[in-house]
Structure formats: structure tokens, C-alpha cells
Amino acid sequence: MKKPWSGRFKQSTDILMETFSASISFDKRLYACDIEGSIAHCKMLAHCKIISPTDARKILNGLRRILRECDAGRFPFSDKLEDIHMNIESRLCEIIGPAAAGKLHTARSRNDQICLDIRLYLRNEVDETVQAINRLCKTLVGLAKKNIDRVIPGYTHLQRAQPVLLAHHLLAYVEMLLRDEERFCDARKRINVMPLGSAALAGTNFPIDRKYTAKLLQFPEISHNSMDAVADRDFAAEFCSAAALLMMHLSRFCEELVIWNSSEFGFVELSDAFTTGSSIMPQKKNPDAAELIRGKSGRVFGNLVALLTLMKGLPLAYNKDLQEDKEPLFDSADTTQVCLKIFTAMMKSAKFKSLSAAELSSRGFLTATDMADYLVVKGVPFREAHEITGKTVAYCLDNGRTLDDLSLRELRKISRRFQDDVSQHIAIKNSVDRKNVYGGTAKKQVRAQISRLTKKLK
């Protein structure tokens, strides 16, 4: 098939240039979107009497046949035909002849055609990503419900800070993931704008009905400026941005799972199905799934930077540079979705370990803040209570003791404000239960959050 621009050129394209400029190796995945858009465009051309009903029927039958060939893996993609549009158009010419097939491209350009394809593609990717996030959230809420009685150390600066319910910790990630879901859904509003009819950059001379096409393709809005429509990739960058934030959250969680899975922490055991061994050390069980997800976050961050860098120097309207938008976009969508699937399955099979009160209080002085608050209740100003508690911790460190095994006599040597009820205030379970404020780690509050999230996720 001749190049669509061959009429102006006297010399054929260099073979090296053909290979260099071809995008079919990666944009062939857009075939269903390209055909969907072409079917709607054909119907609109017939509706507006720009092409005859006979030609429209031929074109539609040909496009549907091509779709079946692509779905079955029988379509003969060719690098010589450069991109998905020309591959499909060439095959359509073979099936129905060039006289009818050549009319399909009336009133459109590959510039608005590819913008449409990407938007159709991203609509589906957003929907699948949101569903995957929702499944992960449900898994985490289920784990929270199952582990409502487990207490673990909460950390700041990776130092033991205060006791929290494991369920509370898990639900923190649900909150992050729900923000991710909101970002994808919000981005979908800007993805869901139809650019077809913008043609190369200025619109078209033909009396097309863009609203009719938009209705066929279920777009609630059409683009308002033809130059912006073919040059815009904000919606793609926004998708990559949402994907990068999501991967950052998964990476943070994976970091904690790697730490928790270590012998030093021992809070969780990951399933054999999501771990691997060592080729030399037989005792090893490595958290490879978590490490790979953590590592793959970097490529999704890089895809966002690549797309922003691609766009930052482009004048209006379309430029060939924009061919480079697809690979980072596809990779972000693929990587994000597979990581969500793996992470969800890994969490479903993870086994969390119970820590006794003795284990929790043996290191880190988790209830030191509770001791300070106890003194405040006794009338001591908080800054003074903080200092007294700090001296108590120092005494424990010097003498190899913990807060809960100090006698009242020892405590009263540090401050006469301590009474015999102090032991109840610094008990691990009581420390957790007293955080009974909205959003706190008390079991009552966590149960309420589980109930709220369960309803929301339905």
C-alpha cells in the first residue's frame, strides 16, 4: 500500500527510517479502540450523508471482519505500514477494495484518530485499575476484621513509638488506596472527552456531526478547541501521575512487609507462593514479590517523568514526538495492574503473628506517652510530665528494666505523683483502648472504620 502522503514525495522512504518511525510494534494493542472509533466515524459519515449507505455497509462489515481477525491473532501486522491506523486501512482495502475503503478517512486525520484511540484505551484501563484497587481494599478490610485483636508496635523514624492495632495499620493503607481510586476516577472525567472531528489541527471542511459520534462512543463531552485536542496529552500524564502515586503507596507497604517478614521483626509470614529461596543459602525465604513491586514503582515514576519531558517543549499542534507517549503509558497501565493483582494475592495468603504483651513491652517503651498522659491527669503540666517520663525511661535503660516491671516504690523515687493505678494506665491493651477518638486505634474506633469502609466498598 502507498504511503498516505506519497503524492507529494518523489523518493521512497529510507528502509532505516521506516523501521525507526514505525510504531506498530507497540500501538497494535490499540486495534480494538481504533476499530471502535472507525465504526463510529463511518456511521457518522453515513448519518451526515457524506458517504453512501452502500459504502458504509461495506466499510462496517470490513472493520468487523478485521476485528475478528485481530481477536483471533490472525491479523497480518506489518512494520512497513508504520502504525495501527495504516495497517487496518490497508487490510480494509484488501477486503472491500480501495474505492470504498478510501472513504473511511474522510473528515479525520491520524492526529485526532490516535487521540481518540488513546482516550478509549485509557477509559478501559482506568476502569480495570479502579476495580483492582477496590479488590485490594476489600482484602485489606477483611484482614483488618480478622486481625482486630492483634496489637503491634507503631513506628515513627522506624523506632518503636506506641502500640496500635494491626487492623488500624492495615486500614491506613486502605485510606491511601481510596485516594488513589478517587484520583483515577477524577482523571477519567478528563479522559472521557472526544477529540474526533478535530482532524489534523483545524477541524474539517465536511459537515460532520461530532455530537452524534460522541453519543455512539459514549463520550459525555467533545473537545472545544481542535488544536488543543490533537496536541493534548494532559490526560495521559494525569493517568501516569495517578499510577505513580498508587505505586508509591504499594511500595511503602511492600517496604513494611519486607521489614516485618525479617527475623528481626517477625510480624508476618509471607506465603511460599510469593517468596523464593537462595541458590546458595538453603535457609532463606526471600520476599521477592514485595521487593519486585517496590522496585517496579521506579519504572512507573520514570514513565511519568518521560511523558512530562516529552511534552514540555512541544509547540502546537501535533508533532511526531507524540508517538513516544504510548510506551510509557502502556507500561504504567500494565505494571500498575499486575502489581495490584500480585499484591492482593500476596496479602490474602499472608499470616500475621501474634505478639504477647511481654514481647511488646520488652523493647521500645511503647507506653511512655501513656505514662506522661497519666501524670497530666494527676495535675502535672505536660512538659514536666514529659521530663519525668524521660527520666523514668533513662532509669530503665540504666537498670535493664521496662516500664511495666518497675515497682511503685521505684517510680515514686522519680516522682511522688505516681500512684498505684499507674500500672493500669501503661498496660498495652489499655493504651490501645484509650485512643478512643475518631480515627484512633481503639478497637471501638477501628470496628467503626471497618464498618464504614465495608459499606463504602460495596
Secondary-structure topology with pairs:
Elements: H1 15-21, H2 24-27, H3 31-47, H4 53-71, H5 84-96, H6 98-101, H7 110-146, E1 151-156, E2 159-165, H8 166-191, E3 193-194, H9 210-216, E4 221-222, H10 226-231, H11 234-260, E5 268-269, H12 288-311, H13 326-349, E6 351-352, H14 357-362, H15 368-377, H16 382-399, H17 408-414, H18 422-425, H19 428-433, H20 443-457
Helix pairs in contact: 3-4, 3-7, 3-9, 4-5, 7-8, 7-13, 7-20, 8-11, 11-12, 11-13, 12-13, 15-16
What do you see in this structure?
It is a single chain. A hairpin with a 2-residue loop joins strand 1 and strand 2. A two-stranded antiparallel sheet has the order 1-2. The two termini are 52 Å apart. It has three domains: 16-106, Fumarase/aspartase (N-terminal domain) (Fumarase C, Chain B, domain 1, Orthogonal Bundle); 111-354, Fumarase/aspartase (Central domain) (Fumarase C, Chain A, domain 2), CATH 1.20.200; 358-444, Fumarase/aspartase (C-terminal domain) (Ribonucleotide Reductase Protein R1, domain 1, Orthogonal Bundle). The chain has helices at residues 15-21, 24-27, 31-47, 53-71, 84-96, 98-101, 110-146, 166-191, 210-216, 226-231, 234-260, 288-311, 326-349, 357-362, 368-377, 382-399, 408-414, 422-425, 428-433, 443-457, and strands spanning 151-156, 159-165, 193-194, 221-222, 268-269, 351-352. The chain has 458 residues and is mainly α. Helix 11 (234-260) packs antiparallel against helix 12.
Oligomerization state of this entry? single chain
Number of helical elements? 20
As for the number of domains, it is 3
Q: What gross morphology would you assign? A: elongated
> How much helical structure, as a percent, in the residues?
55-70%
Strand content: under 5%
How would a textbook summarize the main sheet? 2 strands, antiparallel
What is the CATH level 1 assignment of the largest domain? Mainly Alpha
Supply Rg.
31 Å
According to CATH, the homologous superfamily of the largest domain is Fumarase/aspartase (Central domain)
CATH architecture of the largest domain: Up-down Bundle
